[in-house]
Amino acid sequence: MLGSTVVLSGCGALDLGSQRKAERPGDDPPAQTREQSPSEEPLQPENDPLAGDGPLFAHFKRVRAADPCELVPHSMVKKYGPEQLTVRGTGITECQYLTGYSDAAKSVYSFKIDLHAHFEQKDAEDAEQEELDGRTIYREEYSTDSASHRSCHYKVPYEGVEGSALALDLLKTPPRGKESQEWPQRCAAAKQYLGAVMDKILKLPPRKGRAAGIMGKDPCARKDDLLAAIGGSYKLVDVRYSGPYSCDLELANKAKNQKLTLSSGLAFHERQTGGESTAEVRNRRLTMNGLYVLNSRSDYKVSKSCQNSVELRRATNSRKNDAHYVTVGLSSGKLELKDADAGFEAPPVSCTLVIKLTRIVLDGVRSSS
Does this model's pTM top 0.90? Predict the structure, then answer.
């Protein structure tokens, strides 16, 4: 995903190879000088449900293969008015369907489904449990939701998949200039809609046509190529998928007590803009083979990073905010930070290497189109 620190401060061609030549994470030393230490053997991955071979891995693959906008029951929502707009959410797994009348005196209704919303047992304890067609569903109330009197939110866990649920958010927007009124039927309407789509969506049927751009793509599909580019001085510790379109490769150099995190993510966004750089974070607007890129470098004491966010496809229009973005970043830190390490400063990260990693991920997205 795009980091919130990414801002703009100028344009140029993507050539960040002018850093100092000191040893940097990911810069593999020559074979004849590299230390071969038993302590550099890979660490044992934790038993993590988000790991690359964890229970969510296969589920995320099925989520990527489905298209949420193909699962909207158009005929059912006609009673709320004609279709106004269909918008894909930032996380790619979402589809928002706006229906109503263009007349400013009429209300507009938003039905948004998400094929993957994080949901665990502790979330169920804070939600209202209900039944729908023999299935347990959960209604959530958000304390920060100022529109709770005219909205309703449900989640339906996937059977046998801990940590993921189908989500539905229904919202009624009042006529322009009119006071926001309570909608007593909001949850009844949400349950009716959910009942029409629930069984079909939970089966995660694959999309009908070929996936376009970043849709359906695995951000870590080129894992082996990415690891080869980083080099042998860092060993793979774990592969974590925090969502269907976001993954991290965790690497460690135990001999030097250093770690690397390679993050790769895909998302829809409007064209990103921002403000000025700071002393710790430097940002530039660049190009890579004609593609628009945001580059961000951070220089903190305990962690340093370099990240590229590439606009693979421009937005179809200003209202949809559906530009396709591929974001690749590398960050360094200490493997185990103790009180005695108060003076530790993370080694710099090679932005030249991040360019190479970015190209690998882009090639993976394009080759699977």
Answer: no
